[in-house]
Structure formats: structure tokens, C-alpha cells
Write a structure and sequence with these properties.
- The complex is a heterodimer.
- By secondary structure, chain A is mainly alpha-helical.
- Chain A has nine helices and no strands.
- Chain A is globular.
- The chains are: A mainly alpha, B mainly alpha.
- Chains A and B meet through helix 2, helix 3, helix 4, helix 5 and helix 6 of A and helix 1, helix 2 and helix 3 of B.
């Protein structure tokens, strides 16, 4: 059964199709939620909230492609995660003077595996992590991030700068560890 | 959010995005439990089922309340209090007076000595009436428990007619005195009082002999002995 047929079945009210769809996407979307919400339990709750909203509003969804479907699912999940972070007031405000334009070494990130990259991002503080996820991974602008998180653009920039600086430190530390292990 | 996401920034790192999006499990971590998560999601998606359960709980609670209130409501629909009292409370034996000789009340002369009235106490008990509501075992306390209604089947006998037109005089005695009808002494004849074993009657007789106080139905002794008498009895 293709994804399009699955969506059609779900629209018709098939619970089995809903379950099948859930099995298909839940693992990836759980990891997506965990990039924003560190706790596994919270991430699972957000994922379930996202699926619940998806099934509720599926009548207004028109299937175009699998990529579009996954993008829509991602938007729903990210929105749920950001809602919870806003409720907890998790974002630390940083003065704009501290914000500096810094570029992380592209090769350093590209050479990392997905799991290693995930573990590094999860180690970031919540403010840095959220802005980095939204800017560097999802591709939003600072203006959009500021609107989504309820902070200023300068705060978004400073958070991103700090996140990148911290990631560079962590990557260098990891490289040094690897080098030591190899030398031993 | 959809429109926001479409406006990608110039520093969009598609490599990172693809890497992270394809990640479906983490090394060293347990995979997601689909069944448990699906059950949670199913609970959220079927609030109707939960509402139905709540509805059942409400019905059960309503049945309980109705079970408690039903006996109370039924008790309220019972007949009025007087009927219940007359049916439930045992009727005390009453004394009916049967007159053997009624006094001729048409006598014109008020000075004429009236006839003595002999009364007989009857202690016939009316047949016991079973309470109307035996199953419920309801005991209702009447507002005035002493006000017992006489059953309609009881024979109503007119009271003896006593001529009280003659003035009654009595001397003042220091001790409190009570009025006792002569009929209560079983006989109007003073000699029969001696037959009664009670000390009370003897005392009364002695009192009569000593003081000579009787009802002044007449001045003559024959009038005094033959008419209705009201004696003053020493209560103490």
C-alpha cells in the first residue's frame, strides 16, 4: 500500500490505516522531537500530540508527495515542541552585543555521522539548541525564528552564535579524543 | 508555520537536514514501543469512548441516588398523619358508661330529689386493629400522642344526666381537696362503703360523719341521703 492510499484510507476513517501510518513515521518523528525536547517522555508526548492533530486535520491535507507529507508532519511536530518550550519559558535572552557572525567549519559537521551530530545537538542548552535547529537544520531566517519563539532577532543571532561556538568546541574535543585513542 | 518554513535562509544546510531527518533510531537507546505509543494515541483520538464510560459512571451514580431517595419519596405519598396514627397506635381501652336508670330531667321542681344513677364500668377492649402498614414498619410519632381518636365502631353512650340546678355549697378545707362523684364509690348508700376494703372510702365516710358536709341538695336528711351527692374527698 502506497502512502497515498494510506492517506485515503485514513481519510475514510480506517483505524488500521492510522496505525500503519503511525508505525511508518513515528520513529523518525520521535527523534525529531527529541532534538527540540530533550526528555524522551516529553518528546513522545509532543509526537503523540502532533499525530493527533495530523489525524484531526487530515481532511484538509492533499497528498502531493512523500516529501511534502513528511515536511507537513515535521511542521506539526516542531510547532508542538515550540509550544511546550514557550510554555516553560525556556529561552534565555542574550544581549545583541554579544551576537557575532561566526561560521562553523562546514567540513567538521558534514563529516560527522547522523547519530554523532544528534548527540552533539542534544547536548546544547535549550535556547542554543532550538535556534540552531531552526536556523541550521530547518532553514528558517532569524526573523522567522524570532517570530516563532517570541524573541528578538538579535537574541536569535546571539543564540545561534553561541550554539555554533559551543558545537565547535565539542567537535574539537571529540577530534582530540579520537586522536588520543588512535595514538594509544 | 508552513509559510515560514518555505522561506529558507541562505545558510540552509541541506546536508544536516537530510542527515537528521533520516535518523530513525539512536545507537544505545531502546527503540520506540509502537504498541504502547499507539494505545496512548488511540486514547486521545477516541474521546467519545471515554465520554461513554463517564456517562455510565453518571448513570450508576444517579441510580444510587435514586435508590436512596425512592423510599423517602414513597413515604411522602402515604396517607395523612391522623390516619396513620389511628391505624398504628393501639387504642387504649376506654370506659363506656351504661346507664341503668336515667334521671327524669323533666322534673319541674328543682328541689325534688333527683334519682340516683348507678353506673357500671365496662372495660371492654375494642378488637385490636392491625397497623395498616406492617411491611414498612413505619413508626410515626404523632404531634399529640395523647389525642387518641375514638374508633367509630365504639359504642357511644350518653352521659348520665345530673341535676345540677341546685346550689352546691362546700366548706373550705385547709388541705387541698378533690371532687369525687358518688357513683365512683359503687353505691350511693353510705352503708355499702364499709364493704369496700379501700381505706379511702372509709376515710371519706368518716369525714362525712364527722363534718356532716354534703352537697346541699336539701336541708332535710332524707333529701341528703337519697339524692345525688358530691363529696369532698381528702386527697392526702
Amino acid at each position: 500500500m502506497t502512502t497515498e492510499q494510506l492517506i485515503r484510507e485514513i481519510k475514510a476513517g480506517s483505524v488500521a490505516a492510522q496505525q500503519c501510518f503511525f508505525r511508518l513515521y513515528s520513529a523518525r518523528l520521535l527523534i525529531l522531537c527529541r532534538r527540540y525536547v530533550k526528555s524522551r517522555e516529553d518528546a513522545e508526548e509532543r509526537m503523540l500530540d502532533g499525530f493527533f492533530k495530523f489525524f484531526k486535520t487530515i481532511d484538509s491535507f492533499e497528498f502531493i508527495s512523500d516529501a511534502a507529507l513528511f515536511a507537513w508532519l515535521k511542521q506539526i511536530m516542531i510547532h508542538e515542541c515550540l509550544c511546550q518550550l514557550r510554555k516553560k519559558n525556556s529561552f534565555q535572552m542574550v544581549s545583541e552585543s554579544e551576537a557575532m557572525d561566526i561560521t562553523i567549519e562546514e567540513d567538521a559537521l558534514n563529516n560527522l555521522s547522523a547519530a554523532a551530530l544528534f548527540s552533539l545537538i542534544v547536548q546544547l542548552p535549550v535556547g542554543y539548541r532550538t535556534v540552531f535547529n531552526l536556523y541550521a537544520v530547518e532553514g528558517l531566517t532569524h526573523k522567522e525564528i524570532a517570530g516563532a519563539l517570541g524573541i528578538s532577532e538579535g537574541s536569535s543571532k546571539s543564540q545561534l552564535w553561541k550554539a555554533r561556538a559551543l558545537l565547535q568546541k565539542m567537535i574539537h574535543a571529540n577530534e582530540n579524543d579520537h586522536a588520543k585513542q588512535q595514538s594509544k | 508555520m508552513k509559510t515560514i518554513m518555505q522561506n529558507n535562509n541562505p545558510n540552509n544546510q541541506n546536508i544536516l537536514q537530510h542527515k537528521l531527518d533520516e535518523l530513525d533510531h539512536l545507537p544505545g537507546e531502546e527503540a520506540i514501543s509502537f504498541d504502547a505509543s499507539w494505545q496512548k494515541l488511540e486514547l486521545r483520538m477516541n474521546p467519545v469512548r471515554r465520554r461513554r464510560r463517564n456517562y455510565l459512571y453518571w448513570i450508576a451514580a444517579a441510580c444510587l441516588v435514586a435508590g436512596f431517595l425512592l423510599p423517602w419519596a414513597l413515604n411522602r405519598q402515604k396517607p395523612n398523619l391522623n390516619e396513620v396514627v389511628s391505624n398504628t397506635l393501639p387504642i387504649t381501652p376506654t370506659t363506656s358508661i351504661k346507664s341503668n336508670n336515667l334521671v327524669d330531667s323533666n322534673a319541674n321542681n328543682t328541689r325534688q330529689a333527683p334519682m340516683l344513677v348507678n353506673t357500671i364500668k365496662s372495660t371492654e377492649k375494642p378488637p385490636f386493629k392491625a397497623p395498616a402498614v406492617l411491611e414498612k414498619q413505619i413508626v410515626l410519632i404523632p404531634e399529640n400522642p395523647l389525642a387518641v381518636k375514638q374508633s367509630p365502631e365504639q359504642e357511644i353512650i350518653p352521659a348520665p344526666v345530673v341535676d345540677i340546678s341546685a346550689p352546691v355549697t362546700a366548706i373550705v378545707v385547709k388541705k387541698p381537696l378533690g371532687v369525687v362523684h358518688l357513683n365512683d364509690l359503687n353505691n350511693a348508700d353510705g352503708s355499702q362503703l364499709e364493704k369496700t376494703a379501700g381505706n379511702e372510702n372509709k376515710r371519706i365516710l368518716r369525714f362525712i360523719k364527722r363534718t356532716g358536709v354534703e352537697t346541699s341538695l336539701g336541708d332535710r336528711p332524707d333529701e341528703r341521703t337519697s339524692g345525688n351527692h358530691i363529696l369532698l374527698k381528702n386527697i392526702n
